[in-house]
Write a structure and sequence with these properties.
There is one protein chain. This protein has about 90 residues and is an alpha+beta fold. It folds into two domains: about 1-30, no CATH class; about 35-85, no CATH class. The protein has four helices and two strands. It has helices spanning about 10-15, 25-30, 50-65, 75-85; strands at about 40-45, 45-50. The chain has a two-stranded antiparallel sheet with strand order 1-2.
């Protein structure tokens, strides 16, 4: 289920510092913890917030979908580097 929160911004509510508080229920739903690094971007006029952990997970899923089964990218890279080192 989607978590929804509406919060008014203004000099009275954020102390004039442009801060935005993320309510505990939303932080919990997103798996956020104190000290997490957040990635924030504007997409089609919307502010999108994700933890870097979530961004990394999504990137890994995209790459995994492109790599054929049984192929190790780390193994391929190591083999290429060993081959390149032979010619130095």
């Amino acid at each position: 289920m989607a978590q929804v929160c509406r919060q008014a911004l203004g000099s009275d509510s954020d102390g004039g510092e442009g801060r935005l508080a993320i309510p505990a229920a939303l932080r919990e739903a997103m798996g956020m913890a104190d000290g997490d690094v957040l990635d924030m971007r504007v997409v089609d006029g919307e502010l999108r917030i994700a933890t870097m952990r979530e961004r990394l997970r999504r990137a890994q899923e995209r790459v995994k979908a492109l790599v054929p089964p049984g192929i190790s990218l780390a193994g391929e890279l190591s083999a290429e580097r060993r081959e390149a080192a032979k010619h130095e």
